[in-house]
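Exercise 7. Given the encoded structure of a 380-residue chain, write a plausible sequence.
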């Protein structure tokens, strides 16, 4: 009678409970991480980033002075202004011309552009042009009447520079192009800042950088800090503003794939039980193996191979008995053995290194002579 063998429900539960517990904890941790990450911004000039190129220090400074900072990566948040709010648009990202036009007509009273590209300037700061020149890092005086710049005084600036129309206020430049430009109309103020690094965690404490950032950005109680992402098909800005090859959202796919690989590794790496030692079904003695090889040699009339095996075995015993190196020259081996046994060197050479025997009788004679020689070596 055949009997099916399998695990009971209790055995299956004991076997699977640890992998299921580990998998559940990993899934829970991944969900918590994704929720926490989705609620925050990331990347360069992010108000939540504590990296050198982040702006967490600036966000904390603004909040300390009563400014409510709301970081976002959603374009819809940049299209819904509130009364008395400031919109800060960070660098990088990719938006279509139509997106910039929608932001321009959304009704913000104050917009701050951090190192904007050409399309952003056309839509939000007409008349301001990127000069294509990069201002080296250094401390500079404002050389303008902009109140925020006058209060800040000397600021450590570097980065993109812009040419501005006569109606604009341009500060911190080389006399021709500037890194800070303000355009004012009846219902809107637009500030263009090319020196992104001045407001990062790395340089905010230098010179009057913090004072400039506070007086330039912290003009209203609410600040929407928008970091453009890759929501549009167009590309805006010069090469330095080019989006990276891998958009930030791909990191979520990477986390999901890493989690899937981990779960598969746990599943496939489960222990099936202790290793069981299995006895060999048949034990073959060495003598039987030797006899079997001899029969094969005899059946195939391979006297040459049989003679080579006999001579190799005898030479091994001679090398060991006389301390002769394994790679010694045949003449040296013959001379050493002849000195120890008193045999004729020519006969020893023929016995140890001669031609293969031509008959079974000659092979038997060779085997007998080699056996006698090895016996003489063992019992001189």
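Solution.
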């Amino acid at each position: 009678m055949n009997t099916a063998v399998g695990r009971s429900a209790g055995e299956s539960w004991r076997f699977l409970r640890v992998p299921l517990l580990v998998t559940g904890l990993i899934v829970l941790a991944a969900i918590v991480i994704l929720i926490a990450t989705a609620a925050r911004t990331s990347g360069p000039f992010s108000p939540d980033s504590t990296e050198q190129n982040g702006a967490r220090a600036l966000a904390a400074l603004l909040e300390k002075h009563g400014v409510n900072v709301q970081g976002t990566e959603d374009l819809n948040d940049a299209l819904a202004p509130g009364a008395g709010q400031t919109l800060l648009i960070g660098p990088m990202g990719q938006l279509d011309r139509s997106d910039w036009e929608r932001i321009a007509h959304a009704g913000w009273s104050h917009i701050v552009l951090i190192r904007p590209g050409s399309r952003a300037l056309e839509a939000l700061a007409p008349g301001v042009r990127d000069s294509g020149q990069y201002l080296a890092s250094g401390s500079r005086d404002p050389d303008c009447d902009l109140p925020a710049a006058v209060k800040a005084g000397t600021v450590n600036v570097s980065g993109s520079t812009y040419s501005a129309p006569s109606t604009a206020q341009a500060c911190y430049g080389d006399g021709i192009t500037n890194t800070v430009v303000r355009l004012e109309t009846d219902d809107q103020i637009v500030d263009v800042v090319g020196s992104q690094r001045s407001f990062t965690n790395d340089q905010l404490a230098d010179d009057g950088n913090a004072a400039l950032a506070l007086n330039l950005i912290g003009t209203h109680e609410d600040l929407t800090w928008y970091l453009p992402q890759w929501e549009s098909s167009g590309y805006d800005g010069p090469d330095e503003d080019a989006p990276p090859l891998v958009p930030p959202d791909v990191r979520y796919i990477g986390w999901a794939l890493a989690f899937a690989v981990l779960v598969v590794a746990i599943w496939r790496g489960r222990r099936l039980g202790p290793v069981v030692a299995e006895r060999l079904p048949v034990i073959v003695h060495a003598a039987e193996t030797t006899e079997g090889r001899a029969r094969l040699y005899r059946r195939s009339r391979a006297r040459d191979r049989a003679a080579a095996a006999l001579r190799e075995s005898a030479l091994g015993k001679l090398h060991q008995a006389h301390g002769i190196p394994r790679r010694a020259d045949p003449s040296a081996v013959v001379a050493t053995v002849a000195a120890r046994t008193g045999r004729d060197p020519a006969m020893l050479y023929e016995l140890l290194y001669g031609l293969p025997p031509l008959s079974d009788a000659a092979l038997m004679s060779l085997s007998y002579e080699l056996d006698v020689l090895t016996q003489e070596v063992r019992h001189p």
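Remark. The chain has a mean pLDDT of 80. Students should compare their own answers with the one above.
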